[in-house]
Amino acid sequence: MTSPHAALWDLDPHVLHLNHGSFGATPRAVLDRQTEWRRRSEANPVRFFGRELFGHLDEARHRLAEFVGADADGLAFVPNASTGINSVLRSLGLLPGDEILVTDHAYGAARNAVDFVAGAAGATVTVAHVPVPVTSPTDIVAAVTEAATPATRLAVIDHVTSPTGIVFPLADIVGALTERDVPVLVDGAHAPGMLDLDVAGIGAAYYTGNCHKWMCAPKGAAFLWTREDVRSAVAPVAIGWGRTSVPPGRSRYHAEFDWVGTDDPSAYLCVPTAIDVMGGIFPGGWAELRRHNHELVRAGRGVVARAIGSAQVVPDELTGSMAIIPLPPALEAADGFVPDPLQTYLAVERHIEAPVTHGPKPDDRWLRVSAQAYNSLTDYERLAAALMTWTAQQGR
Fold first, then answer.
1. Rounded to whole angstroms, how far apart are CA atoms 158 and 109?
2. Does a cis peptide bond (omega within 30 degrees of 0) precede residue 133?
3. Please, which residues have CB within 8 angstroms of residue 102's CB and are 6 or more apart in sequence?
4. Domain ranges of the chain
5. Which one of 30, 153, 161, 220 is separated from 271 by 20 to 30 angstroms, measured CA to CA?
6. DSSP-based three-state secondary structure for 373
7. Which phi-psi region, left, alpha or beta, contains residue 97 (left: φ > 0; alpha: ψ -120 to 50)?
8. pTM for this structure?
């Protein structure tokens, strides 16, 4: 049975969407509001960009700051979490011999940025291994903190990992690294909207997250929050007028990030609408939406895992709105933008969007499923049937 909430989106009804985690999906009402903002800006571009935009950005920023538990002074809009990560990395001033700590669950684009910046500075990258199956949050904390050294200048840690969907025990990790004088940049790409956030309370030096994924804002809406004691050193990747021209009443931080050149700010300005629309789906608001998604993905994971005889490798306490199901090793290798053959089969032949992800070890291969309000348990039953057909065709 189709979810009654699916009508809020313009998703293709002939496709089964179980990959909300990759790009999100924006409800029609939010897209309509984006069109209104675009028309408003085009009615008089000089007035809108020259005299009105900063005020609108401030209003949207305060709503977002309240939603994620951060002070608005430290929050800047960026197009995506990758841009936020690059902004921090480029601002570090690394020296030869410095180290950046990451885990082997890091998102590929984030890891590329870390490798590039470290390589250009003559710094090194240390990788903490977090094994799957995951046994306990304590083991994750230990794996990360034991990899830190006196030369570690920064740790880049996921809040919710992309390939495995694990909700890292972030506050514990940050606390343990802080005791070692290691500042943390949190890659929270998946966290806003999936988790009940207290960004400032986590204690990290930097936190970046997407609004287009689980908050369901338009594509191109994300944020970078920096703690007050490190804020003055952070600048956007693209340097614009804000470096030398700060409007009255604005901070240098906001002046730089709010105006890096003419762009379409409508995605940022729609963040309050996304908060309201998604928070209005269930009577219990965002808390009920998060609970619905968490419970649905866990139930769906169980349906699929039982059908193909797979094990649960991430405990419920570390599962948010995405979950992985272990798969046998691939018969054909996937690389970069070349998808796993199973993912292609699901998308092309069965019209099911669900990614196959891989880990650092050759045999690490998982099917990752997501749950959003437009999904229902029958979606996972349909996926399970498709996987059983695939297995039979492969002779496994």
1. 12
2. yes
3. 110, 111, 114, 125, 126, 127, 128, 155, 156, 157
4. 4-18+282-394, 29-275
5. 161
6. coil
7. left
8. 0.96
Residue carrying structure tokens 């019209």: 351
**Residues in the chain, total:** 396
- Cβ(374)–Cβ(17) below 8 Å: yes
What does the pLDDT look like over 48-80, one tens digit per residue? 999 999 999 999 999 999 999 999 999 999 999
Q: 29-275 — its CATH code?
A: 3.40.640.10
Residue with tokens 């804020």: 231
User: According to DSSP H, which parts of 44-147 are helical?
Assistant: 45-47, 53-68, 81-91, 108-121, 137-145
**DSSP code string of 182-225:** --EEEE-TT-BTTB---HHHH--SEEEEESSSSS-PPTT-EEEE
Residue range 4-18+282-394 in CATH 3.40.50.720: no
SS (H, E, C) 297-366: HHHHHHHHHHHHCCCCCCCHHHECCEEEEECCCCCCCCECCECCHHHHHHHHHCCEECCEEECCCCCCEE
The span from the CA of 335 to the CA of 218, in Å, is 29
